[in-house]
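task queued by scheduler; priority normal; single chain, no ligands, no partner chains; default sampling; output format set to structure tokens
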Amino acid sequence: MISLTVLVENTARGAGILGEHGLSYWIDTGAHRVLFDTGQGMALLNNAKALGIDLARADAVVLSHGHFDHAGGLEAALAVAWPAALYLHPRATEKKFSGADPAAGARCISTPFVETEWFLRDKRRVIVTREPCEVVSGVWTTGEIPRTNDFEDTGGPFYLDEALTQPDPLLDDQALFFTTRAGVVVVLGCAHAGVVNTLEHICHLTHGAPIHTVLGGMHLENASPRRVAETLAAFRHLDVHRIGAVHCTGFAAVATFWREFPTRCIPCAAGTRLTFEPAA
């Protein structure tokens, strides 16, 4: 069996499990183990211990993008998972800011450990690529995701400079996916490339294999009515059977998913563990 454990999420369930604004997942295929994102760093080690997960057994650590709520725990994770290879997009190391009004100032949302590429100093295997990549047998990154529709954006006021003059296209955004007996499982970071763009890209990469499960953040908190409607239509068209919309998706959008897909939505708080039958 393939198991997927939510290590970090805004909400938590279970004794000793901490909630934290961020995401981290542990994927165990039986033969290999992948840590996808690391949260901010305050909850990761605590939750791994509480859930009986030994991060030292990780074969690969993957970053979805360079924001602090996904990469903040990377230093702590790599200190434990010292043999693991690290996978990231080349633009994940850019300094990143957020802010709606230059007069009010910018907020830095990247992390020094990633910006300075400090992870290169311990001589571990680091794979920096824009391309889809098989990180362990059967588990893939999407690589850089094409922006092909006209209704999705990065989901917020994100910039590459403190003056808030250079919008950040967040080309480093990527997702993880693997194939099971029921279909493809998609694990999102924040879907800054757009969840529909992401799913269509994965359909292309898998030659049209059915998508069974989609989990993670979708950055729909500030989405237009059209974007929400188009997203719901895409999930219907793709006949996604299990939906775990969390983290940055936004309360209203999460509620909309539960209203529109009441039998297909699942909670995915930290502490959640899902299992899947491997593809034949």
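post-processing summary
- The two ends are 12 Å apart (CA to CA).
- The first strand starts at residue 2 and ends at 8.
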